[in-house]
Each structure stands twice: as C-alpha cells, then as structure tokens.
Amino acid sequence: MNVHAPRRAEAGHMPALREGARDGIPIGLGYFAVAFSLGIAARNAGLTPFQGFLASLLNNASAGEYAGFTMIAAHATYMEIAVVTLIANARYLLMSCSLSQKFSSGTPLFHRLIVGFDVTDELFGIAIARPGWLDPFYMYGAMLVAMPCWAGGTALGVVMGNLLPARLVSALSVALYGMFLAVIVPPARRNRVVAALIAVSFALSLISGYVPGFSSLSDGTRTIVLTVALSSAAALLFPVNMENAEEATHGA
Q1: Which helix (H) or strand (E) holds 53?
Q2: pTM for this structure?
Q3: How far, in Å, CA of 76 to CA of 224, rounded?
Q4: Long-range contacts of 194-202 (CB under 8 A, 24+ apart)
Q5: pLDDT tens track for 5-52
Q6: Which residues are CB-neighbours of 59 under 8 A, at least 6 positions away?
C-alpha cells in the first residue's frame, strides 16, 4: 500500500485551489461593494451586524437576500420569507444542474454538495468557463475569497447604517436599486419581451395595492402571487428557443 498516494493527491489539488482564489479576488471585491448596500437594507430590517454577516454567509445571493430582508422589514411570516427567497433564487437550480455536468463521474457527492452551497452568477461563470472537468478545489478557492467578502460587506453596511445620519443611510439605500437596475436593464435592452414583462410587473405591483381583496393580503403574499403568475404566463406565452439562446450565448 502506498502511504504517499493521499499526500500526492492532496498536493495535486493545490494549484486548482490557488487558481480559484486568484480568480475569486475580483469577484470578492465586487461582492464587498454590493453587499455594503445590502447591509443598509439589513439594518433597515432591524438586523444586527452579526445577523447580517450570518445571513450573507448562509445565503450568498443579492436578490434572494434583499427579498428576505424586505420581507423581514414587512413583518412577513417565516413561510412567506421562505417562498419568496426560493422564488428569487430559483435560477440557481438551473445553474447547479448545468454545473453538475462539469464534474467527472467519479466526483464524490460531498464535493458536489459543498460546491452547490455557493453557486452564484459570477462563480458559475468562472467555473463553467474552465476547460475540461472541474476540480472542486477550484471552486473552494473562489468561495473562500468570495463568501467572506460578501458577508463582511453586509456586516459593515449594517454597522455604518447604525453610525451614519438617517438621511445619508436613506441615500445609500438607493445604491441597491441601482444594482438591480444593472441586473434588469441589459436583458431588457436585448429582449423586448423581457422589457415588457418588467414594465407589466411594475404596473401590477402598484395596482395590486389598490385592488379590493388583493390589497388586503400582506406585501409578501402579493409578491409571491405576482411573481408566480407572471413567470408562469411568460413561460407559456413566450417559451425560450434553446437553440437560439445557445447561439446568442456563444456569440456574446
């Protein structure tokens, strides 16, 4: 029995770990800046710096976290928070399915589960672009940089939100809306259907607050109903042609 084999195998993962950490640095810096604004929302929801840090460490997703913090601020029920967060993060289910094809058949289940814990848009992007089979340690390296930056940025945002004047905190809160505009504007410019759906969602969100019966529902329940209804209608009326989508992706 070769006792040096485990050491050699372990050493073989170190280059991938270092490369992942290197590629994760710019992602982590971006996360820190965005999470700072998210921390302002956490502070407005009444969270402490530690609670904000823990929330971001366990849920590394801007849209999902913002939805969760908004629901907390609205005094939503646990079930409403869970459903809204699940809907906001649903795209990661598809990313995880795609990313699973990058692992060799011999990759242990626990590696897949750990990687699946932190599949974000940016980490998915650098992982899926890697040639050949994906070494889980590459993702670990990127995660070790990205996750603390995200959680630390949120905690700092909560701290600064408690120290800064109320007017400045209100002004900083606008930065988070800027982040979401940066998310929705590019696909809206490329696809008229997406642009129309965004406009319809804004209008229905406003109208729903005045419709008898519907307006009596909590903000969280209205958000759930509108999100499910609009996404389902869009999927039925405007199904995505996967061949065209793939060509557009390769051509980008």
Answers
A1: helix 49-58
A2: 0.64
A3: 12
A4: 197/230, 197/234, 200/230, 201/226, 201/230
A5: 444 445 577 888 999 999 889 888 888 888 888 888 888 889 999 999
A6: 65, 68, 85, 89
Query: What tens digit of pLDDT does each residue of 114-158 get?
Result: 999 988 888 888 888 888 889 999 999 999 999 999 999 999 989
Closest CA to 135 of 113, 115, 119: 115
* Residue 203, C-beta contacts closer than 8 angstroms, at least 6 positions apart: none
Q: Residue holding tokens 């084999």?
A: 5
d(Cα 158, Cα 162) in Å, to the nearest integer? Answer: 6
Radius of gyration of the chain (CA): 21
The C-alpha atoms of residue 15 and residue 23 are separated, in whole angstroms, by 12
Looking at the chain, how many residues does it have? 252
Check pLDDT > 80 for residue 245.
no
Cβ 127 vs Cβ 138: under 8 Å? yes
